[in-house]
Specification:
This protein is an alpha/beta fold and about 525 residues long. About 35% of the residues lie in helices and about 20% in strands. It is globular, with a radius of gyration of 24 Å.
Length: about 525
Amino acid sequence: MTRDLDALISWHADWQGLRVAVLGLSVTGFSVADTLAELGAEVLVLSESASEEYERLLPVIGADLRIGALDAVPEELEAFAPEVVIASPGFSPSHPVIAWARAQGIPLWGDVELAWRVRDKVLRPDGTPAEWVLITGTNGKTTTTQLAATMLVAGGLRAAPCGNIGVPVLDAVRDPAPFDVLVVELSSHQLWYLGLTDPAAQPVPYATTCLNLADDHLVWHGSAEAYRAAKALVYRNTRVACVYNKADLATRRMVEEADVVEGARAIGFGLGIPGPSDFGVVEGILADRAFLDDRRNSALELATVEGLAAHGLNAPHIVQNILAAAALARSLGVEPEAISAALDGFRLDPHRIEVVARAGGITWVDDSKATNPHAAQSSLQAFPGAIWVVGGDLKGVDLSELVAGAGSTARAALVIGAERGEVLEAFARHAPAVRVIEVVPGDTEEVMTRVVELAAGIAQDGDTVLLAPAAASFDQFRSYADRGHRFAEAVRQWIGQGSAERIEESGDAGGSTPDGQA
C-alpha cells in the first residue's frame, strides 16, 4: 500500500512503520533520525562516517546504521525500499544517491520540511505552534538570526535561533517548553530541498528575509541561476513581512516574484534615508518608517551608529544586519525600546570582524567567517587600505570582480590556500598596483605563523592586517573557526615574543623573498 505522505502534516499523524532513509549523520542527520524514531518510523541511516557518540546512540533509539562509501547507491538502501529519503544539507543535487532517489520517484525531503510537518508537537497556551521567521542570504545569516532572536527575547517573546546556525530546527520543535517564535537560519542547500516540497507541506512563515545575493556554492548548485532560485524560495508563502535589501536589487526582485499570502508587506532596509515602509539611517540614527501609523511623516528611533560603535557593531554590513533583524522583530510587535536594549547587550561571534590585538601600531582583525567574495568585500570596505590575507577553497567562484573593486584598495595582499594561482592571476590582471605576497603552504600549523611574520614585515604604524579570505577553509584548515583561531594565536605569539617592539625599531621583519613569494 502506498502511504499518503500529504496526510503526514502533524506530529499526531500516523508515522508508524514509515520506511525512511536518512542520508548523513552529523548533528542534522541525527536530529532527523531521532525524531523519526520517536514517531515510530522505520529508519535506516546511511553515512560515510559517524562519531562514536552517534554510532552508539542510533541502536538505542531504534534506528539502523550503515557506514560506508556513498559514491554509488548501496545495496542496503535498495533493499530497504524507502518510502521517503531525507538528506542532510551537504548532499548536492548531483550526488549519486540523490539522483537515484529522484529517478526512482522517491520523495526527497530535507530536515526543515520534516520540522514543519511536525511543528505542532508542542503548542503555545493558545493552542498554536510557534511562528517561523526565515533568514537567508549569501552573508550575514547567522549574525542576523542571532540579532533577531535577541530582539524578540528582549521584547518578551520566547524565541529560539535554529537551523543552519547550529541547533537543528527539529531540536527546537521538540523542546518541551513551547516557543513563541523560531528564528530559522536557512542555507541555500536547505532551501533547495524545500523547493522539492509538496504544497501541503511547504512552510508558511510569518516573516522572511534574503539579506543579499552574490555567487557562492556554485559547485553544489551547478550554476548561479540555481543558487539564486534556491535563495528566492525563502519568501514563498510569507504571511506578514518580506524584508529585502534596498542596495541589492536581486532581493527586491525575489520579493516581487514571490508567491506570498495576500496582505504580506515588502519592507526594505538600507544605509540611506528610509522611505515609508523602510528601515534606514538618518543622521546617524537607525530608524523604522515601516511599523508606525504615520510612517509617511515620521519615524521611530531604534539605535545610533555612535552607540553601536561602542560595541563593535558599526561596520556598514553589520548595521545592515541590525536593520534587517529589527524589521523582522518589529513585524512581530517588538517595541523600539526593546530593540535598543537588545543591541546594548549584543556581541558578535568570534571570527566576525573581530579585533584580536592591537600592538606595535598594527591592528589585527579576524574575519575568517568571510568565506566568499561578498563577505570579504564588506570587510575590505570596513577596513580600507588593509593588508589583506586572502585565499583558500574558492568553491568555484571567480575573485576577479572582488579584486578589481574593493581588493584594489588594499595596501598589500598575502595569498594563502590551495588555489593561490587563481588569486594571484586575479591580482595580476585586475589590481597590478597592489603588492602581492604568495604564502607557499607548509604544514597547517605553520601557515598563519608565516602570514603574521610577513604581514608584520610590511605593516606600518596605523595599518590593519585583515584576515578576510573570500574562500572556504577546508583546503588547509578544519573550519573557518580553526583558521581564525590559528591566525589569532599566531598574532598573540608574535606579540608575546616582543616582535612588535622589534618591528617598530627596524621597520622590517625580513620575511619575504625578493620576488614577493614566501
